[in-house]
Amino acid sequence: MLKLTNISKRWEGFTLKDITLTVGKGDYFILLGPSGAGKSVLLEVIAGLIAPDGGDITLNDANITHLKIQERDIGLVFQDLALFPHLNVHHNIGYPLYRKGYKSREVNRRVVELAQELGISHLLKRFPPTLSGGEQQRVALARTLALNPSLLLLDEPLSSLDVERKVEIRRLLRDLNRKGQTIVHVTHDYEEAIALGNRIAIINNGAIEQIGSPQEVFGKPTSSFVAGFGGVRNFFKISISKSEDSKFMKARVNENLSFYLQSDDEGNGYAMIPENEIVITHDKPGTETLNTFPGTVIDIYPHRFGCEVVVDIGEKIFAIMASTQLQAIHASIGSKVWVSFQENSTIFIKSS
Amino acid sequence: MKKSAINLSFAFLGGLVLLFIVAPLLGMVFSTPLSTLFSTAQETEVQQSIWLTIWISMASTLVFSILAIPLAYLLARYSFPLKNMVLGIIDLPIVIPHSAAGIALLGFISRDTVIGKAAGAFGFNLIGSPVAIALAMAFVSIPFLINAAREGFASVPVRLEKAALNLGASPARVFFTISLPLAWRSIVTGLVMMFARGMSEFGAVVIVAYHPMVAPVLIFDRFNAFGLKYARPAALLFILVSLVVFITIRLLAVKRKKDA
To answer: Is B259 a residue whose pLDDT tops 80?
Structure first.
């Protein structure tokens, strides 16, 4: 359906580098990345608002790289929605229909239809500045859907909404996608990505880091950046080899740190250790695990499940502890503690 | 407002400025008997002169707005080499003496110029014609329209225009349905300013067309020939008519925008 091949663009102090990706018909494709990663620029390149310096964009097998914005059959809902403040909701939604040669009566019928679909029939005579964030979002969506675009691009559509409205609009977007609408959705919110996308591309610093299903991307991240986005804090690039002194494999992180893990594979890859599998004790723990390391607490943050403790064991390692547990071991910043985790708690992802 | 010493002194100084503007006008009002004002208003020469001033200035504003508004849009949206020079050229009529502007214009439309000869070929003499008056009015007043419209267009978010393009509108439709309506308030201000400035122009107009007499020339003519007492009622009448016209235009324009 949509295919980007080696798209590059130098734009206001940053660069999109060789972006190549494919969005299938009916996909809900998420472009996930932090602010300033280049997500919105990429979206505007796809929509034709910004011309790429290099590369090709194909939509439904037609090369649209140099096609005019208004001829692309791509609808874009801007992050700031860009509703026309001087037109009422009815005229905002009807705006794209006049070009398509609709007669006045047909425009009215279509506008009413879309308004009903999006639950904004009661707002048709209102002007955008008088609407709430959620209402504006629906109007912007209705206006873009009036185009009946092959591809719907959404730039951070939920970022300015409160939690209740977010749930509403998420449901709406999911329904739209189920009805067959192909969507490319830009966000910096991991939960939003997981909740909506069937395919995810992680973008950072103008380049795609990883593409796949949410399970593939967050189950097998290929960089600490992607792992971090998925909420995995303990992510290490490792090389593993058979251990002479144990049934477990030995994973080498660097000169200072090696640990044991359960794996049938050897070679290079990544290790993820869930934060809640890390145990911090005051004294050296018993011998139930080979993975015990002395370390120094370097930071403690409040966390919704208690505290997040950062310990330096040659690499930073993150653990989640209940506040009472933390008090019991008298840990504070600078304390000497012991860190341990089970060999089978580590997830190994082999490099492809 | 806080009653600090500095604010009080600013208010006092500001008051002096307002007095400076209002006092001569009020003086003129109080020293003109109502009966004289009425009899002046009934003079055909005065009526024709005021009517001539209004319609020529209005026609000049409307005709030149067709050229000025697109230029204002280009200046607001695009950067190009020598843009600052273009902006400087646009402001030129404001800074040069208007009699000098009249002389320049005269050199441009007199019978021995290309334009003058072309008009002459159709049996038309530009000098002393309403066209010459319109040109003189436009020459000195067009910067007000261009600058106001440029600011108006600059205040329209480019994003809205991009959104309209994305919704399938052609660039022309984007201009007429998004950019122009959203910059409308500033454009109206510019139009009113251009119209007002054109109506009140004396220096450039008197050089290209003493006759037919526009109101400022008529006032000068009466002052020159008969003195202050005779010129004053015509001046007051012209001021009153101008005020009524401007207030009406503004109210109509703002109302139209609200209804749209």
So the answer is: no
Mutate one of B167, B174, B178, B180 to test the A interface: name it (highest A CB count within 10 A). Answer: B167
Q: Compare CB distances from A86 to B167, B169, B181 and report the shortest one's residue.
A: B181
Q: Which one is the CATH code of A2-229: 3.30.160.390, 3.30.565.10, 3.40.50.300, 3.20.20.190?
A: 3.40.50.300
Chain A residues closer than 8 Å to B177 by CB: 95
Question: Of the candidates A49, A86, A96, which has its C-beta nearest B167's C-beta?
Answer: A96
**In the prediction, which pLDDT does B61 show?**
97
Q: Are B211 and B48 in contact (CB under 8 A)?
A: no
pLDDT of residue B258: 60
Q: Which of B165, B169, B182 sits opposite A86 (nearest CB)?
A: B182
Q: Say whether residue A43 is in contact with chain B using an 8 A CB cutoff.
A: no
Asked if A110 is an interface residue toward chain B (Cβ–Cβ < 8 A), one would say no
Interval B90-140: pLDDT, tens: 999 989 999 999 999 999 888 888 888 888 888 888 888 999 999 999 999
Query: Rounded CA gap, B185 and B17, in Å?
Result: 28
The answer to ipTM > 0.90 is no
User: Please, which residues 237-276 of chain A have a Cβ atom closer than 8 Å to chain B?
Assistant: none
Average confidence score pLDDT of chain A: 89
B232 pLDDT tier (thresholds 50, 70, 90): very high
- Cβ distance B159 to A82 less than 8 Å, yes or no, reads yes
**Domains and their CATH numbers in chain B:** 51-259 (1.10.3720.10)
Cα torsion angle, B161, B166, B169, B172, sign = positive
Phi, psi of A15 (to 5 degrees): -130, 135
In chain B, DSSP finds a helix count (H) and a strand count (E) of 14, 0
Q: Which 3 state secondary structure label does DSSP give A256?
A: coil
CB pairs under 8 A between A and B: 55
User: Which residues, 6+ apart, have CB-to-CB distance to A340 below 8 Å?
Assistant: A278, A279, A281, A285, A289, A291, A292, A293
Numbered residues of chain B with Cβ closer than 8 Å to any chain A Cβ: 157, 159-160, 162-170, 173, 177-178, 181-182, 260
Give which of A230, A233, A226 is closest to A207, Cα–Cα.
A226
Identity of the residue in B160, B162, B173 whose CB atom sits nearest the CB atom of A84: B160
Asked if the domains A2-229 and A235-350 are classified in one and the same CATH topology, the answer is: no
Q: Rounded to 5 degrees, what angle do the CA atoms B177, B182, B185 make?
A: 130
Check whether domain A235-350 has CATH 2.40.50.100, yes or no: yes
Sheet strands (E) in B150-237: none
Give the nearest chain A residue to B161 (CA atoms): A82
CA proximity to A270, closest of A218, A217, A347:
A347
Contacting residues of A for B187, CB less than 8 Å apart: none
Q: Which residues, given as ranges, of chain A have pLDDT below 70?
A: 100, 287, 352
Crossing angle of helices B44-77 and B83-95, rounded to 10°: 160
Identify the CA nearest to B233 among candidates B42, B23, B20, B22: B42
Sorting pLDDT into bands at 50, 70 and 90, what band is B256?
A: low
Structure tokens at B172: 């022309």
